[in-house]
Amino acid sequence: MARLFFRRGRDREAAPDAARELADKARAVLGVGEETTVSITEIACGDPACGGAETVVLVMRPGRRTEAAKLMKPLSTVTDEDLAEALAPLIANSV
Predict the structure, then answer these.
(1) Alpha-carbon torsion 94, 40, 26, 35, what sign?
(2) pLDDT single digits (tens) 28-59
(3) Contacts by 29-35, CB closer than 8 A, 24 or more apart
(4) Which of 24, 39, 45, 66 can bridge 54 by disulfide, Cβ–Cβ 3.0-4.6 Å?
(5) Maximum C-alpha span of the chain
(6) What's residue 15's pLDDT?
(7) Residue pair 38/87 in contact by the 8 Å Cβ criterion
(8) SS3 of the chain
(9) Pairing of strands 2-5, 67-71
(10) Is 76 left (phi over 0), alpha (psi -120 to 50) or beta?
């Protein structure tokens, strides 16, 4: 199950599709099924390095603590490579 939360703004119409697509990609990278919840959230970021917004990926696996990966960029600019790099520590923790 993917939970999607969005920031209000000019890209609001595209945000649900982008977040859903990113959640599907995260699910594939992590190799998890529907029993795991993947939440994609774009939040305001005060750090100038993140361009005003950062993307947070929460992974909630049954019986485990919630894990998080942060990408210091807006959701709409996250690439497949960015996502794989951010999720790499969570893959290592899945064993």
Answers:
(1) positive
(2) 999 999 999 999 999 998 877 777 899 999 99
(3) 29/83, 29/84, 29/87, 29/91, 30/59, 30/87, 30/90, 30/91, 30/94, 31/91, 31/94, 32/59, 32/61, 34/1, 35/61, 35/62
(4) 45
(5) 40
(6) 65
(7) no
(8) CEEEECCCCCCCCCHHHHHHHHHHHHHHHHCCCCCCEEEEEEEECCCHHHCCEEEEEEEECCCCCCEEEEECCCHHHCCHHHHHHHHHHHHHCCC
(9) unpaired
(10) alpha
Task: Write out the two tokens for 17.
Answer: 């599709």
Kindly report the pTM of this predicted structure: 0.79
Determine the Cα–Cα distance for residues 50 and 4; give it in Å rounded to an integer. Answer: 20
Given a cut of 60, whether residue 9 has pLDDT beyond it is no
Q: Which of 46, 52, 49, 59 is nearest to 11 (CA)?
A: 52
